[in-house]
From TrEMBL:
Keywords: Signal. This is Small secreted protein. Residues 1-18 form the signal peptide.
Length: 169
């Protein structure tokens, strides 16, 4: 009986301490491309790997993502985009045979990563705009276009399942 009385006394205090924790803004740390790239290994699982980087760490309530986290997400997505154009493309052009094929598989995985970051960034902006009562029409159109590209590249990656994949980081 004494345990229940103690619990009854502590419950309001515990609830008061727990409430601010759930209302805190989410924070997403900036990483270098080498820390988060997914292009090595084999093809076929890029969607899950990209989600582990750009989707899974985020809370279900995207309105809690702070501005710095949104900027970090954008910077990381841009790093993946730069890897595609500045690293993958020239290396693929310079390679041949199996090396070129493995780089191409890695490039597709990188595209899935880049586009997953882009889609997540747009989803956060939509959630925050909607919460602020702002129009989301332009963002929704952008989301649809990027989601289409992502779906296409995921399908290409799935076709590469089990094939060697080379990264550039």
């Amino acid at each position: 009986m004494a345990r229940f009385a103690l619990l009854a006394l502590l419950a309001p205090t515990l609830a008061a301490v727990a409430a601010p924790i759930s209302n805190r803004a989410f924070s997403f740390a900036l990483q270098s491309y080498a820390q988060f790239q997914i292009s090595g290994g084999v093809g076929g699982n890029a969607a899950a790997q990209a989600n582990a980087v750009f989707v899974d760490p985020f809370p279900a309530d995207l309105t809690t993502v702070d501005a710095t986290s949104l900027d970090n997400l954008g910077t990381m997505r841009e790093a993946a985009e730069s890897a595609e154009t500045d690293e993958f493309d020239p290396q693929i052009d310079a390679a041949s045979g199996a090396a070129a094929d493995a780089l191409q598989v890695g490039k597709i995985k990188n595209k899935v990563l880049k586009l997953t970051g882009e889609v997540q960034q747009i989803k956060i902006k939509i959630a925050q705009a909607a919460a602020a009562g702002a129009s989301t029409a332009a963002l929704e159109a952008s989301l649809e276009a990027e989601q289409t590209k992502l779906t296409t590249n995921i399908a290409l990656d799935v076709k590469n399942a089990g094939k060697a994949s080379t990264g550039v980081a």
